[in-house]
């Protein structure tokens, strides 16, 4: 048997619950795999074979002791703006579609999703399935291949997750269950109330009321936690808490920001703020331009807002400026688009890296990488070997500029402007230490390197098991 974890809304904690369940099953040596038929996120991950999936499913696989696989997230939607998304199908770009046209693909995509689920079942026997958004979007039932139509096909027991932190938890749970189709409502076997703050005993009466209203057991009341696991999508940006340290780093909050999980380790060692284009950058010790789903359009926002001018001023006063993937492309002198990313044309970049990025075809580079630093300058000289992954369209050429890593990226002669296509650079502790220790030296501060946390998946599993009647979930895997 397997289970589905559905939610009363987006961002209620479905991904976290699935991750915890995967680690607890892994501890018990129960063969299983995580699965999400359709995910919409700009935080993605590259599998060993070069396929692209949502980062949440990759982290769930790691929690389950597995190598991430494209079958775990067969459909990934990557919003590009203007109601358009790129469909990544079985790890590879499929096509760009308008929201109004996407639903014409529903039946075909559901077939692909079911095939992927069957591949995983044959290999691992059990699935822990994550739904998407809210389960009771009644206007979407006929085309909801992440929740209702998938549940109708698979008919697995359902655990419903609700978020008490946002308020209205009784309406969330009762309303969702009441609106589910009859054949799906009968599959709901338990409710988990997530993100509770305060004394759990104060909600005992609430649990009694919910169970009486819904005739479904509440399996747990899970307190909010700051255990660090990668964020699934941009909704998580609003929840970020800035660590107070003397070192302040600005990550430009691009309209189409992608893979901001690149900086979550850095957030534990410096005050990292996500700064919208046009907001003041004058007080920051370093500037990072992250990845984006649409380099050209986000570059135009940076230019129009004055952020490009501010970045050049920061560079002139000696602040390191680092571009990751799309941010690297923006740092170049020129971007030439043949109509792949945006309208065909030539666009002026920020100009801190003398070079040109060209978008010629729809092909996408997706690969895991391990690279040695070139050692140029005071930051890269503190880094030896790092690992990460590339997800990008376009190629960048700068023949007269030194490479940041062997055969990749770019670095200025003084080492303070760095561009790379490597996502995950700052998930390497050595890269975090290199940047933060350099910035501390510039301010005359002794960096007290904090201890790294233990395995966050074990910590999450311990937290979950403490507050949830896991035996009630476990019985569905017998």
TrEMBL record:
Keywords: Cobalamin biosynthesis, Glutamine amidotransferase
Protein's UniProt keywords contain Transferase: no
One biological process term in Gene Ontology: cobalamin biosynthetic process
Molecular-function annotations in GO: ABC-type vitamin B12 transporter activity; catalytic activity
CDD domains cross-referenced by the UniProt entry: CobQ_N (cd05389), GATase1_CobQ (cd01750)
Signal sequence range: none
Residue intervals of the CobQ/CobB/MinD/ParA nucleotide binding domain: 3-226
Annotated active site: 325 (nucleophile), 423
Pathway: Cofactor biosynthesis; adenosylcobalamin biosynthesis
Span of domain CobB/CobQ-like glutamine amidotransferase: 248-429
Family: Belongs to the CobB/CobQ family. CobQ subfamily.
Functional summary from the UniProt entry: Catalyzes amidations at positions B, D, E, and G on adenosylcobyrinic A,C-diamide. NH(2) groups are provided by glutamine, and one molecule of ATP is hydrogenolyzed for each amidation.
The protein's name: Probable cobyric acid synthase
Organism: Methanospirillum lacunae
């Amino acid at each position: 048997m397997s289970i589905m974890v559905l939610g009363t809304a987006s961002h209620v904690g479905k991904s976290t619950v699935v991750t915890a369940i995967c680690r607890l099953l892994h501890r018990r040596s129960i063969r299983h795999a995580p699965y999400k038929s359709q995910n919409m996120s700009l935080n993605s991950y590259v599998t060993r074979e070069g396929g692209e999936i949502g980062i949440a499913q990759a982290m769930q696989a790691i929690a389950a002791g597995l190598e991430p696989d494209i079958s775990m997230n067969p459909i990934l939607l990557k919003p590009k703006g203007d109601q358009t998304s790129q469909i990544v199908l079985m790890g590879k770009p499929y096509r760009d579609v308008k929201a109004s046209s996407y639903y014409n693909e529903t039946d075909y995509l559901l077939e692909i999703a079911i095939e992927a689920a069957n591949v995983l079942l044959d290999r691992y026997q059990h699935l822990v399935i994550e739904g998407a958004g809210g389960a009771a979007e009644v206007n979407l039932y006929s085309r909801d291949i992440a929740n209702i139509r998938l549940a109708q096909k698979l008919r697995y027991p359902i655990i419903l997750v609700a978020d008490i932190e946002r308020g209205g938890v009784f309406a969330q749970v009762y309303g969702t269950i009441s609106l589910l189709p009859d054949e799906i409502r009968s599959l709901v076997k338990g409710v988990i109330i997530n993100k509770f703050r305060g004394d759990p005993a104060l909600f005992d009466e609430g649990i009694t009321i919910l169970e009486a209203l819904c005739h479904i057991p509440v399996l747990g009341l899970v307190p909010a936690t700051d255990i660090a696991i990668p964020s699934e999508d941009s909704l998580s940006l609003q929840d970020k808490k800035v660590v107070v340290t003397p070192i302040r780093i600005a990550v430009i909050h691009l309209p189409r920001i992608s893979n901001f999980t690149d900086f979550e380790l850095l957030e534990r060692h410096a005050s990292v703020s996500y700064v919208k284009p046009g907001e003041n950058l004058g007080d920051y010790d370093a500037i990072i331009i992250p990845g984006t789903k649409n380099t050209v359009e986000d570059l135009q926002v940076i230019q129009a807002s004055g952020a490009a001018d501010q970045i050049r001023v920061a560079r002139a006063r000696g602040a390191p400026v680092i571009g990751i993937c799309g941010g690297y492309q923006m740092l170049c002198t020129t971007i030439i688009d043949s109509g792949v990313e945006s309208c065909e044309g030539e666009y002026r970049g920020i100009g801190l890296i003398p070079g040109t990025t060209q978008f010629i075809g729809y092909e996408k580079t997706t690969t895991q990488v391990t690279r040695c630093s070139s050692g140029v300058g005071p930051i890269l000289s503190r880094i030896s070997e790092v690992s990460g992954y590339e997800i990008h369209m376009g190629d960048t050429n700068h023949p007269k500029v030194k490479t940041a890593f062997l055969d990749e990226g770019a670095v200025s002669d003084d080492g303070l402007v760095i561009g790379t296509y490597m996502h995950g650079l700052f998930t390497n502790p050595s890269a975090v230490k290199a940047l933060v220790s350099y910035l501390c030296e510039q301010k005359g501060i002794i960096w007290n390197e904090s201890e790294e946390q233990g395995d966050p998946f074990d910590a999450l599993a311990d937290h979950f098991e403490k507050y949830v009647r896991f035996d009630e979930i476990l019985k569905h895997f017998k």
